[in-house]
Here is the input.
Amino acid sequence: MTVTDLPWPLLQTVAALADAPLAKIAERLRNATLPYIKSSALVIFTEDCTGRPQKKAGAEDIISRVSIPELDELRARLADETPWFGEADLAGKSRQVLAHKHAASQALLVLTDPYPTGSGDDANLDLVTFLWRVAARRIQEKVADAPPSYLLESRAASAERIRVTAELTDLHSTTLETLMAALRSASLDDAAARTTVTELTAKALLGLRTLSDRTTDIAEEPVAKAFERLREDLRPLTGFSGIDVQFIEPPLNGRALPGEIAHAARAIVRGLVLAMMEQTDITRIRTQWDCDGGNLLINVRDDGGGALTAETPSIVGLQRRVQALSGQLRMDVMSGWGADIFVSLPLDPPARPTGDVAGWNLAARELEVLQHLAAGHRNRTIASTMGISENTVKFHVRNLFRKLDVGSRTEAIALAHSHGLR
Here is the structure.
């Protein structure tokens, strides 16, 4: 086969899919699958993305109405990775769908109203299966290597979803319970109607509470389950590296982890283990998780010669990830005795500033720099954490002085503290 004989359109499609950002993954996957299986809409359901577990493209009347309980119920029908054709309730009505589960991540792909394009149905389905696996793996990789901004957005989205669902649950539970009390009243003599409506109302109430519980489940992950997923992630390394990787499990009754904390913790440990394995004199690495009620406590230790430092590029990147979640990373390194690294990740989002800072008219970057100043960070640390130059930090600091009407860092920090910024 010559270069000109290669299936370039397909290869270019795969390349675009493999390089897709999370926000575009559904759109690119739909564009990739349409030449082989037509569909009215494409929906991806993945609990790896706690902020946006649904990724959708296609008909607006479908993608705007599809719900997590519908997708969860459909996924439960699939025993393995075998593509499934059939009818399912989706976006409020029964539809013909093609559903496909990714075993490694339990992510679900759904194509609504599917039909093949021309002959070669089996080959077309095989190609769609291949493209879905590329996309599912891409999602896993993007979440594992998510930048700090994505982690912060994911945490905010998770918290907001829980808040909204809780409010809806309280509202509709009160309404339905009141309705049930009225229908059970002795003053209503139509017993048959009362019984029927009572049963329907009870079913609706149960469904609403199930929705609330399911939303919470997606936003949180039991600490033992999260740790077991870490062990599975590292299994290839433990099997082929020749290094003894030991796992000290967290207590089974430890507090559940917010989804973005669980994902970040696994990524941080993987990064630390890989950084340690790059040393030449390592024979053993130990990783341990624990909870103190408010924080996930991570300890990773090696038995090497102590070559890792806080300036090691991989450690600098992990430090940024930890700081994005208001966490702390500390290294104890002694030449000849190895590295002992401690990470603390708070399980609750930091409190919002108590004062009104909107009147300062700060840009997002300026507010971020001010928060670093309030935390006592110097320009070099701020530059490293934010991925910008020290000159850019100085530029933002000068703008802050002007907008806050202060003349020094000390005044800026004091003003920030008085408005709840820490």
